Amino acid sequence: MRALVVDHTAKAHLSQADVADPVPAPDEALVRVEAVSLNYGEVKGATDPATPDGALIGWDAAGVVVEAAVDGSGPAAGTSVVTLGETAGWAELRAVPATRLGAVPDGADLGAVSTIPVAGLTALQVLRGMGPLLGRRVMITGASGGVGRYAIQLAARAGAEVVAISGNPALEDSLRALGAHEVHADPAHVERPVSGVLENVGGQQLVDAFAAVQAGGTVVSVGRSSGADSIFPAAALTPTDGRHDRSIRTYFLLADAGEDFSADLTWLAAEIAAGRIDPGISRRAAWTSHEEAALALLERRLHGKAVLDIA
């Protein structure tokens, strides 16, 4: 089969190559991939010299089951699915356990659905962990990215007052259209405190987001798109103005190898198919154009999701 593999001689450190077909484990379905979605983390990882040439990467992919899992788990052959994995998503075939794939409604756009796994699941899981959101103020940093756009929509639908943080003023109208009640360039500009933060950026934004949290509130750090290795100052943790019991915690989607994401993947796929969630695709092309898409991500020229269709 053909796949996108790490190639450090290529400009974006990716190239197409012929590789062996995957051999599914008993609990894995074999999926013919029709579309994939790129994330900054995996594209950046491909540029790391420690990542060997020829490595198969790719977290997000959608396609059709060609062989059901022999242990009877998961959907039958012919079912459209969205899949999550730590590797090997950007290929013509992918072996996926039932716990990491969700059924997709017939006729759904698999390119749109392919944006779900990392961005959609991260947003859903983090917001769910914040508890009931009805009437609460929730801040989303990195709001114009994949996770951010999903988070705005899901938080707004849950009844939250959504405060979006984006450094690009041209995106304010589009973020408000997704459900944001306020849009600011920086957390430091937010006047009223928030009860929770989904923090995508890191660095100084993490510090400023924490400063905006009310008593009992929490910042959940899910990314470090700023690339900053800032040291969180101890002074920021000192209770001020009675705002005690604030916390910071991290979230990593694939921390628990055994976690079952199938129900959430299926639900998110149905929401996209019904038009109730906008996947935020800002670049879509054939996978032969992977270099342009990867460079747009690496150079921070892309807001939203990049999708490659596999022909």
TrEMBL record:
Gene3D superfamilies: Medium-chain alcohol dehydrogenases, catalytic domain (3.90.180.10), NAD(P)-binding Rossmann-like Domain (3.40.50.720)
Domain named Enoyl reductase (ER): residues: 7-308
One Pfam short name: ADH_N
InterPro entries: ADH-like_C, ADH-like_N, ER, GroES-like_sf, NAD(P)-bd_dom_sf
Keywords assigned: NADP, Oxidoreductase
Protein name (database record): Oxidoreductase
Provenance organism: Amycolatopsis oliviviridis
